[in-house]
Amino acid sequence: MAKVYTDKNVFDATIERYEIVFNEFDNIYFSVSGGKDSSVMLQLAAMAARKLNKKFDVLYIDLEAQYKATIDHVEELIEATKDVVDKWYWCALPLSLRNAVSVLQPKWICWDKNDTSKWVRDMPEYDCVINEDNCPWDWFKRGMEFEDFIVDFAVWYHGEKGGTVGAGIGIRSDESLNRFRTIVSSSKVRYKDHGWTTKLKPKQNKWIDVYNFYPLYDWRTEDVWGVVSSFNLKFNEIYELMYKNGVSIHEQRLCQPYGDDQKNGLDQFKALEYETWDK
After folding, report:
1. Low-confidence winner among 37-51, 182-196, 227-241 (lowest mean pLDDT)
2. CA 162 to CA 126: how far, in whole Å?
3. CA 59 to CA 150: how far, in whole Å?
4. What is the rounded end-to-end Cα distance, in angstroms, of the chain?
């Protein structure tokens, strides 16, 4: 590992965080995107869960306009963690997302049934997929903001499961100033003063017993790929193609391709997955 602080490296520190989470939280889920950070977070969590004889759930929000390689990677993560995951929530719902490639349409809705001809992919057909036709949540509204969905899901999950809930999020503070602020803000309420946790306070509610935790918050990009290599972890093959296409490991971005940062790499689809680019 590249970064060392006090007497431990970031990998050992993360394993200790998982032990705290699995031993002290009543229910746990991890938010996964198919990107490198959440992928490593999930696979290390699975390693820790096996050691501690624990299980957890996974939330995957499918934003439709995705690399095929990302979907392939999510599928292999499902297979690789099936022994420790109780339930996957694969959400393919019509969410409102930022559209930075148009001045006339500042938002777009993924999985919009009113515009199926423009879908980048067909609706996935897995038992764990939640779409507009089988959505079990009365709080979901077509076109709701991605950020609101994340919070409402956490509220619902806590209501269903009860107890103290931990929501694992695979973001790192060195990726952007906003991510750094999300984690280190002095206004945040922590779980037992652990700096890698923040308590959730929905806008319409009082504090609830849900804590976001960021097990990789102090990792660098080199640490992520270092642990992938050291433990032979599975990874999204699109990163390999990006690297071969001249994109630095520090500049590789997934998510939906029309966001403010992601649009800068929109033409990568043309080089890496021409069929997806055509769509």
Report:
1. 182-196
2. 27
3. 9
4. 40
Q: CA nearest 58: which of 191, 153, 171, 163? A: 153
Choose between 220 and 206: higher pLDDT: 220
**Span 147-164, pLDDT tens digits:** 999 999 999 999 999 999
Mean pLDDT confidence for 107-114: 95
Amino acid at 33: S
Q: Which of 265, 233, 245 is nearest to 38 (CA)?
A: 233
Angstrom distance (rounded) from CA 193 to CA 196: 9
Residue 98 has phi, psi (to 5 degrees) of: -65, 135
Q: From CA 161, how far away is CA 182, in angstroms rounded?
A: 26
Q: Which residues, at least 6 apart from 219, have a Cβ–Cβ distance to it below 8 Å?
A: 3, 10, 14, 37, 172, 174
Residue 210 confidence (pLDDT): 97
Q: Residue 2 is inside which H or E element, if any?
A: none
Q: Could you give the CA distance from residue 259 to residue 270 in angstroms, rounded to a whole number?
A: 17
CA 263 to chain centre: 19
Q: Where are the alpha helices (DSSP H) in the chain?
A: 10-24, 36-52, 68-80, 146-161, 177-184, 221-230, 238-244, 268-272, 274-278
Strands 107-109 and 96-98: antiparallel
Task: Name the residue among 57, 61, 37 with its Cα closest to residue 165.
Answer: 57
Give the integer Cα–Cα distance in Å for 250 and 175. Answer: 8
Task: Report angle CA 88, 91, 94 to the nearest 5 degrees.
Answer: 175
Which of 135-144, 171-180, 185-194, 220-229 is least confident?
171-180
Q: Where are the alpha helices (DSSP H) in 112-208?
A: 146-161, 177-184
Kindly tell me if the per-residue pLDDT of 33 is higher than 80.
yes
